[in-house]
Amino acid sequence: MFLSYFLEYNRYMNIIGIGLMFLIAFFFSRNRAAIKWSLILKAFVLQSLVGIFMLKSAWGRAGVEAVALGVQKLSACAHVGMRFMFGNLIDPSGAWGMIFAVRVLPVLIFFGAFIALLFHFKLIQRLVALINGVVHPLLGTSGAETLSAIATGLLGQTEALFFVRNYVGVMTKAELFVVMTSGMSAISASLISVFSTMGVSTAHLLTSVSMSIFGSIMIAKMLFPDDPRASAEQQRKEHAVDVQRPTTTNLLEAIATGTSDGLQVALAIGAMLISFLSLLALVNYLLIGIGSGINSLGAAAGVAWRLPELTLDVIFSYLLCPFGYLLGFAGEDALAAGQLLGKKVAINEFIAYSSLVSTQLPERVATIMTYALCGFSNFACIGIQMGGIGVFAPERRAWIAELGLYAVLGGALSNLITAMIAALLI
Q: What is the pTM of this model?
């Protein structure tokens, strides 16, 4: 019976896939000798336990749904001000669909003010210290980087930045990479509500982002492990940021400062998205032109074969097709999985989920792909992180540019491992 379970739905391929994801992370690691395998094992066990708890326990689902409801209430508060400014444009069910500039970016202004208030009253500092006291003995990660991973799993990468805004400027490169990878490994609470209205399962989206908390830490510490040569004094300083004091003198100053910072982040992210997506469109235009030129030369030479229209998502769909088989799919389902993964990496997760909903896939395949697509690991997201983190720590932009593609890889590996664990349980 044990063997038949793993043969059913090709679940044995999921085990092979998880092993292969670890091999890829190990191969691309910046310092293989520094990988702490005890941390990796513990994080993987915790990621798996979260999946089991969420998928096999009604209490688990109820707990995360309660947290999500709280986050949705916060978003609803932001929507009051947004509706005053933009009216019905914030309603994604309208004929105009979801307008990113009025539906997502203004939420960051509210979160900037809200988190600034929490930091002013020293609640963020206490939360960081608490997480550091619980998680650091278990995994060895600092309170700030762990809080970023947890907040990303609950809120999304940009909103989570406000929790660690006062820490990113003094983080080590390895800690900042955890912030970047965790940001690539989950989606925001506001997008969960949007995807839910599109027909994507809310329960599986919530399960995926919960599992990504430990999955992103695990992959980040494989790709870019902490420097073991750091002195005891340096390590002490790295964790001393957990007790930072507020810089605002009163409540009104905290609200004004947070609002201003939130506006800067929203504008920076909007600008980066415009430039990155436009440049990706330029690359696609050049690829199509090159393909058309090759076909013209072939036709002139009497060659019947024609090169298909090439774009980044088409190229990545071919490259990522093997991962469809590792997810346990076969035939057309594996090809469809590769195409969806290609759209997510080359364009974004919104386009990928739109295609998932419109494509007639078997229910189990659609469910597993919900996990595989549940993250911001795409090229445009590098621009989002440069815009978001760059506002709070401009001196870290060079690090973000250096580690951007690594973070995309880390987020994609984390999402695939989450999907493979889910496939073993479903």
A: 0.81
